[in-house]
């Protein structure tokens, strides 16, 4: 017999998983008509909430959960894959196991939290890909579910412990390297404003190279990077070097420079396997250390050893020099 989950109930009642969760945990926020429909579906399907999981903090399962990101273009998505490998290794050394889950967006991920907490005796979560206005942390905090994040709470107070990479320092180092190599026109190829990570990477370039600042913003990807780089390289005063917010954008910039016959130095960010294979100079993140620090903070939290003030860890990246710059 197939297991009945929150998703099963949601489908039968014609509502979202979050609505089913609200009916179970905070029914007063749901309209009476919807509450009754959901309760009828629960009764018909015989859905039973796992009470042990709902009182997760009374026991220790040694199990933590983390989201696995979509593949995207297969280049920069590998960064979080490396983080997950590091987290799994660090968790194993600390006596924990890692459960992976997928989610389409923040709301779907929050619904997944509720479903996982109802079905499994989880100890905690590790969150990745934090961003401005991130609702996931407040949802977990409101329910006293332990968590740490790989990524700072952009634009919000440090109300929880986190580990992050100093993205601005990475692009600043790359820019200073290009300046030392004699480049006087260094452009930046990044993402649209509003992304915490992307804004920080642009800020590092701007901080190190203020006087001549030509830049372009586009969605992440090789093809979009090539289009944006082409617009910069056909400028009246084209840059002689480009600092890029990702290896995907850097690959696009190399493609555009080759097509235009430009001699343009290019630096990427993330030091992916593709960058290593083609000789792309790139900024490398200390992902294994970041994962180990996340696990350390989580272990302190679960063992009751965490300080009263949240711990924040900002790790420096390193510039890996290759043929392109």
UniProtKB/TrEMBL annotation:
<dbReference type="InterPro" id="IPR000843">
    <property type="entry name" value="HTH_LacI"/>
</dbReference>
<dbReference type="Pfam" id="PF00356">
    <property type="entry name" value="LacI"/>
</dbReference>
<dbReference type="Pfam" id="PF13377">
    <property type="entry name" value="Peripla_BP_3"/>
</dbReference>
<protein>
    <submittedName>
        <fullName>Substrate-binding domain-containing protein</fullName>
    </submittedName>
</protein>
<dbReference type="InterPro" id="IPR010982">
    <property type="entry name" value="Lambda_DNA-bd_dom_sf"/>
</dbReference>
<keyword id="KW-0805">Transcription regulation</keyword>
<keyword id="KW-0238">DNA-binding</keyword>
<dbReference type="InterPro" id="IPR028082">
    <property type="entry name" value="Peripla_BP_I"/>
</dbReference>
<dbReference type="InterPro" id="IPR046335">
    <property type="entry name" value="LacI/GalR-like_sensor"/>
</dbReference>
<keyword id="KW-0804">Transcription</keyword>
<feature type="domain" description="HTH lacI-type">
    <location>
        <begin position="4"/>
        <end position="58"/>
    </location>
</feature>
